[in-house]
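Posting for a labmate who doesn't have an account.
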Amino acid sequence: MKTERINRRKFIGVTALGASGALLNPRQLFSSNQNKNIMEKNGKIKLGVNMEYVRHEDKSFEWGVAKAAEIGFEYVEPMVHLGRELLSEAGYFHSVSMFDDPLWMKEVCDKHGIKISGLSSHTPLCKPEISVEYLKMAIRYASAMGVPVVNTDEGPKPLWTSKEMDYTLMKYTLTEAAKVAERHGVLIGLEQHQQYSTWPEGLKSIYDLVDSPAIGYNFDAGNAFIGGKADIYDWLDSVKQNLVHFHAKDISIEQSSVRGNVTGVPVGCACGEGVVDWERIIDIIKSANLEREIVLSVECGTVDQAVRSFAHLSPLI
């Protein structure tokens, strides 16, 4: 029997169930009853934290998850990598190797009552020799845990390629990744961060490269602001229906001095202490009336900033 092809909005709505901890069978993507369950269970804004908040603590993934739970976050967004490296293996860095068992990662989170909003799997889409297998593995890794989203941006481009070549390379990468994502019921969240995506038309041009229901937006408020090419609230409003994840990154007054001269920053300041109007951001997301849950994943650089971000954002949602 021929399988029905579904559109982006229905696919995104159905796959959002993974955030609740349920594993999805790909055939469920086409079930109207399953979609009904999504509408009943989700549609809320939740708070999480990107694991980069412990990047300067010289601590392990397990330590960072326990600390997130202690602060009060409901979700974490882990970073994953290929192969092995010294700091993570020694427990001095938070990133997790995809050579490790994904169910171990889930067990760590379950132990502390934490869920996973998405995987931080940023990779240069313009460099398929790096990004294709990395993204496909991240998607399978997420699927094994019932995690609904993997996040990426276009990444730094090769020095020798033209824009036309870069778009061909990105289309190849995203096509290969999207095929795997569709099979596994996982979403790919495109983030504005590099040379082609820091204004609305640029990000949309990458989104439009591949007609796949598995591709949506991981909107980064801080990067949208620091790029200096658009009003971040109008931009968010224009993509809110295809939002799958959100990076709650605020930009300090000091950081904002480079606005328009850079394409992004690694982490921001504590939410509520920078230039972003978080009440307005949350109102825009709520106005989308999405059937799926959207996690605001705080991207800051220290544990103390995460604590202050949680205190600021919690009353707003």
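Reply:
Got it, the structure tokens are right above this. The radius of gyration is 18 Å.
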